[in-house]
Amino acid sequence: MAAATGRVGGRVAGADEAVFRPVRAGNPFEETVERLLQAIKLGVVGPGERLPAERDLAARLNVSRETLREAIKALTDSGYVESRRGRYGGTFVNERLPKARRVSAKPFTREQGADVDDALVLRSALETGAAEAAASRDLTGAEIDHLRSCLAETSAAKLADYRRMDSRLHLAIAEVSGSPSLTSATADVRMRLNELLDAIPLLAVNLEHSNHQHEAIVAAILAGDPAAARQAMQEHLSGTAALLRAFLT
């Protein structure tokens, strides 16, 4: 049985491993900024929560502490985090995050239209597989609680927070698949997907429908039904794909 995926210091261990992984050589500053933003935007470290200690985070990202500090300063200047001094100090995610930049759909499509189908196909392959794999496993109590918690937080999320909590739930499903590599790949494609979703409006009716689909996905996983979990996830992803294609093509 795989190790439990539980919350550690306000975060989820499996998600930590997915986003705070070593950066590739060549662009350490840029990739460090990318990793930190990924953790914030996907809800791995939520508003008001503290990032891992500097020494630990630099080691996990395999960058110098100077590079890490430069990346944190960039995010501080951009309004994502703040540094606090003292015994309980550290770097904390701001309670109010910068709003995503809205992009006009038509220019966005002309410039990056090829990314739409590519991202959707990749997402479908990864997330339907993750749901199926998660339903095939004997989940631990901590993993079950984690899924239920993320589902509840998404269902109760305000409109302004919905994208982040939705991302967190999908990442949680990948986490309990038992594959760290799959979790990392899901985190990467979700960041690509969110760039596309930021170009279209949030529709209240669609969010209500999504919440019902989320419940069906999690129920199938907890019931240990791989086929139903895969089908429920595919139906859910198809709805998102239809909206994106409608607005962006």
UniProtKB/TrEMBL annotation:
Q: Which InterPro entries match?
A: GntR_C (IPR011711), TF_FadR/GntR_C (IPR008920), Tscrpt_reg_HTH_GntR (IPR000524), WH-like_DNA-bd_sf (IPR036388), WH_DNA-bd_sf (IPR036390)
Gene3D superfamilies associated with the record: GntR ligand-binding domain-like (1.20.120.530), Winged helix-like DNA-binding domain superfamily/Winged helix DNA-binding domain (1.10.10.10)
Return the SUPFAM superfamilies for the record.
GntR ligand-binding domain-like (SSF48008), Winged helix' DNA-binding domain (SSF46785)
The segment(s) forming the HTH gntR-type domain are: 26-96
The source's superkingdom equals Bacteria
List keywords of the entry alphabetically.
DNA-binding, Transcription, Transcription regulation
Asked whether the UniProt record includes Transcription regulation among its keywords, one would answer yes
The record, for Pfam families, names:
FCD, GntR
UniProt key word Iron-sulfur: no
| Family annotation (PANTHER family) | GLUCONATE OPERON TRANSCRIPTIONAL REPRESSOR, TRANSCRIPTIONAL REGULATOR, GNTR FAMILY
Q: What is this protein called?
A: GntR family transcriptional regulator
